[in-house]
């Protein structure tokens, strides 16, 4: 239970510190919509989505208004399309993506995720068709998001799929060149993808999930920053151990708020409640930045020495607070460091204080990985694949989720700016060190075997 002072501080979070429920995501199982007839399949999934989600936005707004806690985004995640549409060609997969988009528009959700393939150990026919469809599907829809899992601690790293994704990312960027490669901002490449992510672009409904489920994503970087600022301004002058405890207690309160909203939305809709994903996911707004937390902790900027240690402490404290607050914490839960979506992190990159190499090092302790990183448009598919492979290795060896959202911006070079709009923000294009030559390592292909850590039965 929260004390009176904790209730007052929670109200302060709502009013002045950017606390919100970042997303309520309705997961919908579409596996029994499968059909060999593409038109029947599209009709089935449209009917299922619009039937279950027709009241989602209204109910989220109703519950948000009741408690004075805004639900910023309403989203849908569906079963991996590569599984339920395994019999279709890449052209037909594009048509499926357009149907998903139409359904999302019909029920007025912000995004729909699940244009997904799971290829950590091999690429089946349906996976191949979906992956080939990704550039066109993302270029010709506004609300569809895609994810491809190419590695896991259990299976290793599918380097053939990694190289394929390097090529797909290049093509997706070129198809949306006029929008600075925007299609790539809706595409995540994962290692160890969870089955219950409410945050885009990685959200999909896993094979082990029920017919429908409500997952909630709560974010509060501004709340955490203000809590640290108050503590350091007090006479007690806490050390890092005590600051970690402050972050943990703050995360506890934020998680409780998210579960309250999620459970009420689920109850009204008559749908099972799933998880709270407590992820410090920033926005481009001032005061809603993960990067600013590093400055509150005494660092000049994210990216300078000490940043990885600070992020490790932050991520651990957030997870501990969330786990204490709820038995239903899932998804990614931790701290995101997306370059374009966080104004402070973007400025650190522009000032040269944060390089892509330091960013990669920090992903060993954060929740996701190289997220919303704009790179020069002439970066080769092999180099993109090599960056992905490095990130996948971090996830596989450390038994954690990692991912990349890399955006090779057509026609632009390091130091230029890319503009994506809305929550996706804008970013300086970060330099990539490719050594000036071809990457023959990536072209070797095959499967990098699972590490010793996988043998834990």
Give the tags.
globular, Anaerobic Ribonucleotide-triphosphate Reductase Large Chain, 12-stranded mixed sheet, 457 residues, two-stranded antiparallel ribbon, 44% helix, alpha/beta
Overview of the molecule:
The chain is α/β, with parallel strands linked by helices. It has a domain at 220-253 and 283-434: Alpha-Beta Barrel (Anaerobic Ribonucleotide-triphosphate Reductase Large Chain), CATH 3.20.70. Helix content is 44%, strand content 18%. The chain is built from 15 helices and 14 strands. The strands form two sheets. Strands 1, 2, 3, 4, 5, 6, 7, 8, 9, 10, 11 and 14 form a twelve-stranded mixed β-sheet that branches. It has a two-stranded antiparallel ribbon with strand order 12-13. Strand 12 (417-419) and strand 13 form a beta hairpin. Helix 5 (90-107) crosses helix 6 (125-139), helix 6 runs parallel beside helix 7 and helix 8 (221-233) packs antiparallel against helix 9 (240-269). It is globular. 57% of the residues are buried.
Q: What top-tier CATH class of the domain at 220-253 and 283-434 fits best?
A: Alpha Beta
Radius of gyration: 21 Å
- The overall average pLDDT, rounded, is 88
Task: Give the total of beta strands.
Answer: 14
**What composes the largest sheet?**
12 strands, mixed
Helix content: 40-55%
Strand content: 15-25%
* CATH domain topology of the domain at 220-253 and 283-434: Anaerobic Ribonucleotide-triphosphate Reductase Large Chain
What's the order of the H and E elements?
Answer: HEHHEHHEHEEHEEHHEHHEHHEHEEEHE
Q: In terms of structural class, how would the helical and strand content be classed?
A: alpha/beta
**Which spans have pLDDT < 50 for at least 5 consecutive residues?**
none
| Terminal-residue CA separation | 38 Å
* CATH-defined architecture of the domain at 220-253 and 283-434: Alpha-Beta Barrel
How many helices does DSSP assign? 15
Shape: globular
For this structure, the quaternary state is: single chain
